[in-house]
Structures are given as structure tokens and as C-alpha cells.
Design a protein that fits this description.
The protein is α+β, with helices and mostly antiparallel strands. It has 3 domains: 45 residues, no CATH class; 36 residues, no CATH class; 109 residues, 2-Layer Sandwich (GMP Synthetase, Chain A, domain 3), CATH 3.30.300. The termini are far apart.
Length: 203
């Protein structure tokens, strides 16, 4: 059966000789069926794509991001946004942990960046290693506190552009930390730009 007779073919044979009915149903078939890309049949068949982060149209990505509580994407390129939306749901099982924060920060930092998260200010009193007043205090650590240490490879830009670049990245990193950390915690950010020899250039 050809595309122009799908609806007519569902009716009893007595109606098949009606040209007026054939013309009416042909107009409806254009709206409903393929190969017209805008047909309802095509739209319904493509609904599953709307829920795929890698396939959804660009204009639907913000809508999909809201479903996974990512209404703020903080300046990520489009492909990074798609990857983040596609992987955030499994990561939610780790919310409030070091793993979650580190994995989330990787989306917002340049390639090669080193990320460490420490939740103990001091290592405690270790005989033969502890340095009183430097890395060991004889009192309790700060509760609900953690430190994020980030070392970013130098981009090779001049000083003024490098500082502007760093300010932009630090702002994004702080936004990510505020989004990912438990509400009752405080943190310290230790950020530095390093060269190929891992020497700190700027802090």
C-alpha cells in the first residue's frame, strides 16, 4: 500500500471510490505520516532522541539539563555540556564525597590539571615526623572543612592574559565547588599555575 492510501485503506471498500474522501485523507496523511520530516509519525519516532544528552537538539539541552538539576552550566562548551548531562546521573550516587567533587571539577578545568581534595587540616601527632605548630596542632581539626588543591599547566600566554584567564577559571571552579559541596561545609581553594617542570608560576 502506498503512502497516499494508508488512511483510506483502513476504511471499508465502499468508501474507496470517493474522490472527495481520498483528497481529504491525502491531506491528513501529509501531516501524519513519513516521508515528510515534520510529520507526526516522524516526530513521535524521534521522541527518544530528546532524552539522550548526545543526540538531543541544541535547543533542548537546557531543558534536559534541568531534569538532572544542572540549570547552571557555567560557561561550558556545547560538547562538554552534553558530556556532563550524560554522566551526571550516575555521579549523583557520590554526591557530597571527594569523588563527586573531583569528577565534576574535571569538566571545568583544562586538560592536564591536577586536583586534590583533603578533608583533614592536619595529619595528627606522628612521632618522628610531626612538626609542632607547622603541620600538627594539639587540638581538634576544623570540623566540616576541606581543602581543594588545583595545579593547572601554564597556557603559555602573556602575564596579563594569563591573570585574566586564571580569574575566569577560578570563578568557575568556585561555582562548581559551591554547587557540589554539602551545604554545612566550608572550604579553602589552593590554586596555582605551573610550568612543565611543575614549578609554580602564579598563585
Amino acid at each position: 500500500m502506498n503512502g497516499s492510501g494508508k488512511l483510506l485503506g483502513q476504511l471499508p471498500g465502499v468508501y474507496h471510490s470517493s474522490e472527495d474522501l481520498r483528497a481529504l485523507l491525502s491531506a491528513l496523511e501529509i501531516i501524519l505520516f513519513e516521508p515528510n520530516k515534520q510529520a507526526l509519525e516522524s516526530q513521535i519516532a524521534g521522541i527518544a532522541r530528546l532524552f539522550s544528552a548526545m543526540e538531543t537538539p541544541d535547543e533542548f539541552l537546557p531543558w534536559l539539563a534541568q531534569w538532572v538539576a544542572l540549570s547552571r552550566r557555567m560557561g561550558l562548551p556545547l560538547e562538554q555540556q552534553r558530556r556532563l548531562v550524560g554522566t551526571i546521573v550516575p555521579l549523583y550516587a557520590w554526591r557530597g564525597t571527594k569523588h563527586y567533587l573531583i569528577e565534576l571539577l574535571k569538566f571545568y578545568l583544562p586538560e592536564g590539571a591536577e586536583i586534590r581534595v583533603e578533608d583533614q587540616e592536619f595529619t595528627g601527632l606522628v612521632v618522628g615526623k610531626a612538626r609542632i605548630g607547622l603541620d600538627t596542632w594539639l587540638e581538634h581539626d576544623r570540623p566540616f572543612w576541606f581543602k581543594v588543591t588545583i595545579r593547572v599547566p601554564s597556557s603559555g600566554t602573556d602575564g596579563e592574559r594569563s591573570l585574566q584567564w586564571q580569574d575566569e577559571w577560578q570563578m568557575r571552579v568556585r561555582q562548581v565547588i559551591e554547587l557540589a559541596k554539602p551545604a554545612h561545609t566550608t572550604y579553602e581553594l589552593d590554586w596555582a599555575l605551573v610550568d612543565e617542570k611543575s614549578e609554580i608560576l602564579q598563585v
